[in-house]
Structure formats: C-alpha cells, structure tokens
Fold:
Amino acid sequence: MKTATRGSKPGKTSAGTMHAEDSTSSTAQQQQQQQQQSQPSYLQRFFTDQLKDMYYAEQALLKGLEKLKNACSTEELEDAFEKHRRQTERHVTRLEKVFKLIGKKPEAKKCEAMDGLLKEADTIINETTEGTLTRDAALIIAAQKVEHYEIATYGGLVQLAITMDLDRAAEILEKTLNEEEGTDLLLTDIAESFINVNAEQEGGYSWKKEEMQAISNAF
Ligand SMILES: [Fe+2]
Ligand SMILES: [Fe+2]
Structure:
C-alpha cells in the first residue's frame, strides 16, 4: 500500500515532510527565512517597479501635454490639457511621497508604453492639419489612451497597496487615480459636445450611403 503524501510535489516544500530529528536543517531554514524577511518580497519589488514606471511616465507626460496643448485649436481642449498638466505635476509629487512611505528614494524607470503612446500622439500631430477639429478629435483619443494606461496602473497600485496594508500610500495613489478618471470623462464630454460633430463636417463627404448599401447587400 502506498503512503499518501498530501500537498507535496517533488522538489516542493510541504509541512508534512518536516521531521523533528531534522533540527539542523530546521535551524538553517529559520536562518534562511529570517534572511528572506529582511529582503523585499516579489510583490514589494513589483510594486516598487511600477512606481518607478509611473514616475518616468508622469514626467514624460508633462512634456507630452505641453505638446498636445500647443497642437490643438479649441480653447476647451487647450484648457483641459493645461488643467491635466498641472494635475500631472501633482502626480509626480504624490509618487515621491509614496516612495518616501516605503523608505525608497524616487527613481524613474523607462516606461516603453508611455514612450509609445506619446510617439503615437506625435504622429497624429504630424499627420493632421493644423487648425482642424479632426486634429482635436484625434488628439482627444491619443490623450485618452494615455489616461487609460494610467488608470490601469494606478488602479492596480491602489489594490496592491491595500493588500500590503499600506493605507496612506493607497489613499495617495487613489487621489491620482480619481484625477485620471476625471480627465478621461472630461475629454469624452469635450469630444461629444462639439468636436466630433464638427470634425465630421470638415470632410464634406459622408460614408452613410456606403454603410446603407453594405447593410442592404448583406441581408
Ligand atoms: Fe497622471
Ligand atoms: Fe493622466
């Protein structure tokens, strides 16, 4: 008859495999555990890494928002970009506070995603005509892609901070998260209130006929 070895796999540690006579290895394990406790956990390292990512991303975005502000042609959008540029300055300061709360110096780590999103915004500026509302409609979408990236990251960071019992850090990160969400909504409002409709009229040609024809051909 085989003996059941519940919960243990080859090469894995299981509580059932510990024996009293193995006191030497038990002391060694305790020392190893103590050593591990003084090191940051995988989750703590990941959290710190994401803070560094956002510290880079927010600073890159400060320059990006300046460009967006100069490229758009409506006052409403310019004001929205300027408002968010000022908020973004505070996002940088808040990240510095969170670094301090976990005993780390603020440090930036290259964020490929933000670099890519800002590069896309540059392409939009180069490929659209100055003074058109088509450009403004496109810039809103470019900016919303950035906001959604920030919302995903800050949303995750808030949850991780709560999980790690970092109440103050979670509060600080949530303030920024709320501002990113607010900006996303404000940009949607601006797009829907007049920019998209006016951009649609700049071309002078509607695709409605094509769509109606395609629908009638399909059924
Ligand atoms: Fe931000
Ligand atoms: Fe933002």
Observations:
- Helices lie at 23-38, 42-71, 75-101, 112-127, 133-163, 167-202, 208-218.
- The pocket of fe (ii) ion (ligand 2) is lined by residues 84, 88, 147, 150, 180, 183 (CB under 6 Å).
- The two ends are 68 Å apart (CA to CA).
- The mean pLDDT is 89.
